[in-house]
Amino acid sequence: MIAIKTVIADKQTMFVQALTKSLNDSDEKVFEVLNTVVSAEKLMEFVEESEPELVIMDLNLVDEDGLTLLPRLRNFSKGMKICVLTEYGDYKFVKEAMIKGADGYILKSNSIEDFYDCVRAIFNGETFIAPGLHITPPKMKTGLINNKSIYEDRFMIKRKLTSREQEVLALITQAKNNKEIADELYISDQTVGVHRKNIMRKLGVRNTVNLVKFALENQLV
Questions:
Q1: The whole model's pTM is what?
Q2: Which of 73, 92, 98, 130 could form an SS bridge with 106, CB 3.0 to 4.6 Å?
């Protein structure tokens, strides 16, 4: 059997090392891990140069949201298989990833057997969503409360903001006022004010000082 030429994009070093060893040492010798990268930029460079058959990627890369990267990967190659392997199981992420070009979606908490099932499925021309994941809101049993963790990492926080709000936030952290931001983005002062209020509401802060502090502490810019 010819090994599948594979690249892994993930910023968690120990996880990548363990996964690479597992794939390279598998009894069936199904995979040949050509490279591992931590950024969207490096992944695109490698894909364009080496044309791997399989991309295994997390959504939370060091320089870009993986969901925004997916269409570029898919536009580069319709035949290359893309497996999202991540810790984010929200149905909205699953749905968006599949729409934007992923062939499979699986969680890091799934078993290695689930991963192999995913690879077999997508190389048979099927799509694969790991057991327990959904592309629509899962039905909640009566009386149960959605047990959402109070902890959210940078990826989850940033996904709350639109691309325009992220631009405005970046300029706010540079100590620019509404007029300066409006001039730079070619929008009105009033529109900037609306964006500023929406950003603070979404991030749960009440003033600009705390907004800037929150943005810097969570590396949102």
A1: 0.73
A2: 130
The three-state secondary structure class of 82 is strand
**Tens digits of residue pLDDT in 97-156:** 999 999 999 999 999 899 999 999 999 999 999 998 888 876 655 444 444 444 457 788
**4-129 fold:** Rossmann fold (3.40.50)
Correct CATH for 154-217 of 3.40.50.720, 3.40.50.2300, 1.10.10.10, 1.20.1290.10: 1.10.10.10
Query: Taking a C-beta distance cutoff of 8 angstroms, is the pair 221, 174 a contact?
Result: no
Q: How far apart are CA 144 and CA 202, in angstroms?
A: 25
Per residue in 165-211, pLDDT (tens digit) is: 989 999 999 999 999 999 999 999 999 999 999 999 888 888 888 88
| Terminal Cα distance for the chain, rounded | 46
* Residue 115 main-chain phi, psi, to 5 deg: -65, -45
Task: Name the residue among 89, 53, 45 with its Cα closest to residue 69.
Answer: 45
